[in-house]
């Protein structure tokens, strides 16, 4: 209160002295007084008190010319913080002389200056106000909040009416400029929800953005989501009030040295609690801004398209479908409409507990925002997920996490709707939690999401991309609890893994990775790597090469998500060196233990078919034609993904005791005589019918002892809609095999028809194709890790067929959005491929799977 007292000392006589004393009393009364505690009531009282004082300064006698004293900006909204400027406009009709107007202005301005109150003032006629507003967007924004104080009220009303009409007429041209002002502020001042010393007004999500949302609403183009917005703005104003009073300065920056005092003034526990309140309010405003500006863009695009559409349509005729009315299916119950992901009209959130995750995964994978009405509908009506989650929910969650940077806006939408709290109860403890280490650029919760984003680019390095993404999301989850966050996080990670639906073995791995997520970087930078004891210590904690590769990838993702100072070429080289030494030690230990199951190269062994599959094989051999069956998938024992060549006994611990995981989709079994082109033919037919392959096994059997039959056991799910009839699948397969159906052409036509060139899809990590060293004594093992996509397996099959190799067996699995496949191939005469040819095959296949460049947005699709 020192600065306030100094600026208003003097006698308590006259209008200014009385105002100064009343102002001091209002701002200095105990916070327990419910009439004057920080908040809208006190700001309104301060504005009313100031109105009364300024009215007395202007005087009540009739004026010639007509004049009006008008409050604009924050004062116009009736919101005065203790050290806020007074934004005033002296409006006149232009009939008075310059001396008369100047005298009236001096009567008001000088007493304000005498009290040491900052003043932003102007003197204008109605015409001058219009001209200035037309030339200066910021002036126009301030005048939108014009409020009459004293003088001729009709003059103020005329100003407000004309400026609002002007704003609405010019909104299509001015709103994009207003949006750019906000983006420029964000570039200069950063994002309020993540700053340790935030600017409450200028940073993204601050008071300026809240004011911009009012201007958008005044344009009648769009309106901001109302839920929580006014409360968020009031929270930031309350904090600014306390900041002004504790510092005695007109500042909007919440400096570190002031945070404890401000927190105390607001009755909060500490500075962290204060920042968390700031961040929560700022996120509400930021999300509302994103939604609002997206809607503004949609409306403006629609308006711009109407004249062109009328011109194209010409005269009257049948109704044409406007582009904004098209709805493209993305997943079951989820469609794209006008650049957003919305719920299908047939969606039933109350009967479909996986729908929130399915919609989120579809939005992130498509690089589209999840529409706010869809989020609200999901939050209000979605049935709760059972615990543990069903397999489909787990897969969709992993797909969401693996979408890269497009995960972030979808996650923010789910958080704004309260969906994340329902899915992950422990998330509440880390939401908006500040990290006072200057190396960190994000709050704890956003850091976890950013780590998953970074990890999504590293999924080709690991055998279990699903475990990597979950570990990335949970590695710092223990920071919401007291004590060592790694120790607390291990327990939470195990519990969450069980909740999400992972088996005990996977939960054990996740717990280990979270517990030791700092192990590699701390050891590499602080210990002697030439000391065998160091390597033995790390190897003992890690336990297996599979866990080691997860830790190595998580270490890099964690550092990259922390900030630019947390990762460097030097650190990366040290971690790589340590990981290589530990991997060698783990390999040597496994060899010494004689673990042929976990460490020896995989062998191609005859597939053990079920009785039902054997019957199909017999029928296929008898008829020399394809036969197939669709039925509910049966749970299978937990097993590592294909190609895990270094899985030790510690990885497999508890596998026998693990409950059989719930399968995703239905089981499709196909048997047909061995012939070239089977894999691309079958996978192409499945893609044509929009069936997503979750896993697959291809093998050869000899049911009658007289010839081999190919047996393909697929686990598939419909991308959307119902499953096709088995007979229809068989008919199309026969047509593909006899050459009457060009499956590649049909898939290309459909892809072109559904391509949306106006936007770019998320950039997935490039595919990785390798030759497994010593993979099999009977065949060469080609391992493929790529982004799952419709027709991916068809493209792989075509490439292998084109290379002139024979696929003896295949093991296909999809983990979230990642395909992890292994193909056992031989040359035309059988046997493994020569090393050089195998390496060339891997290179050619990797090149064939490389994503094609996005089409030019200016070019039409197809």
Automatic annotation (TrEMBL):
Gene3D superfamilies: cca-adding enzyme, domain 2
Activity regulation details: Uridylyltransferase (UTase) activity is inhibited by glutamine, while glutamine activates uridylyl-removing (UR) activity.
Domain of life: Bacteria
Keyword Magnesium carried by entry: yes
Start and end residues of each HD domain: 444-567
Occurrences of domain ACT (ranges): 667-748, 781-860
Any GO molecular function: nucleotidyltransferase activity
Region (Disordered): 631-658
Biased composition (Basic and acidic residues): 643-652
Keywords, alphabetical: Hydrolase, Magnesium, Multifunctional enzyme, Nucleotidyltransferase, Repeat, Transferase
Keyword Transmembrane belongs to the record: no
Xref: PROSITE patterns: ACT, HD
Cofactor(s) for this UniProt protein: Mg(2+)
Reaction(s) this enzyme catalyzes, per UniProt: [protein-PII]-uridylyl-L-tyrosine + H2O = [protein-PII]-L-tyrosine + UMP + H(+); [protein-PII]-L-tyrosine + UTP = [protein-PII]-uridylyl-L-tyrosine + diphosphate
EC numbers for this chain: 2.7.7.59, 3.1.4.-
Role this protein plays: Modifies, by uridylylation and deuridylylation, the PII regulatory proteins (GlnB and homologs), in response to the nitrogen status of the cell that GlnD senses through the glutamine level. Under low glutamine levels, catalyzes the conversion of the PII proteins and UTP to PII-UMP and PPi, while under higher glutamine levels, GlnD hydrolyzes PII-UMP to PII and UMP (deuridylylation). Thus, controls uridylylation state and activity of the PII proteins, and plays an important role in the regulation of nitrogen metabolism.
Similarity comment: family membership: Belongs to the GlnD family.
Description of its domains: Has four distinct domains: an N-terminal nucleotidyltransferase (NT) domain responsible for UTase activity, a central HD domain that encodes UR activity, and two C-terminal ACT domains that seem to have a role in glutamine sensing.
Entry protein name: Bifunctional uridylyltransferase/uridylyl-removing enzyme
Provenance organism: Streptomyces cheonanensis
Organism ancestry: Bacteria, Bacillati, Actinomycetota, Actinomycetes, Kitasatosporales
